[in-house]
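Researcher: Please translate sequence to structure tokens.
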Amino acid sequence: MSRSRVASRLRAGFAAIVVAVFAGLSPALARAGEVHVAVAANFAEAAREIAALFGTVTGHGAILSFGSTGQLYTQISQAAPFEVFLAADRVRPRMAIEQGLAVAGSQVTYATGRIVLFSSDAELVKGEATLREGRFTKLAIANPATAPYGAAAVETMRALGVHDALRDRLVQGTNIAQTYQFVATGNAELGFVALSQVAGHDRGSRWNVPFRLYDPIAQDAVLLRRGAENPAAVAFMAFLQGVEARAVKQKYGYGAGN
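Model: Translation complete:
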């Protein structure tokens, strides 16, 4: 099947499934199936809730695998058996399409994320002054080469003019989940984490980094070629943009995307 025919079929499938979900009906699928989804680590908790709702509404199962966007893309390029890719940027989904790993026309922005400077110490974080004063020994960030949330942290520090002064204090997590663990366990006094990771509690101290210091993190999803013929994969892409998923994304502090 040509790429253009696949994209046309998917667009029609998206529309039909969205209508069915909005109407409170099960999508018109022959039978329940499952979809393998690669998920950027920052979106882990939201993805688990969305997957559970997806199963309830559609009868399909979603098998989730988590990692940094760069790590997941490498696995996809090496033929990992994923069918949908939920990245933390726009670049890798676009690259997947350009390299023939994903279906043209399927890329959508499913969420917009933001970073937070967070500490388990309730007295430590007091806005950007915390970075300028530097009264800490370790600052955790995700690896900026593979994790867009880490790149946003570096962008913020450079905008504030403190990156060079803090360079030797940086502790890098392989992804944003590990970065949060560094802070939560006290291995770093503070760190740049995803708002979604702290949205559900008021422990510690935090500063929601303003968008004037970094570009909002547009997170795109794409249907991989392995999922092009899988109704469950097509259904998951549609469900990700529906009203049920939108409510979950807002709960975790994400902009809802497209």
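Researcher: Any highlights?
Model: The longest strand covers residues 34-40.
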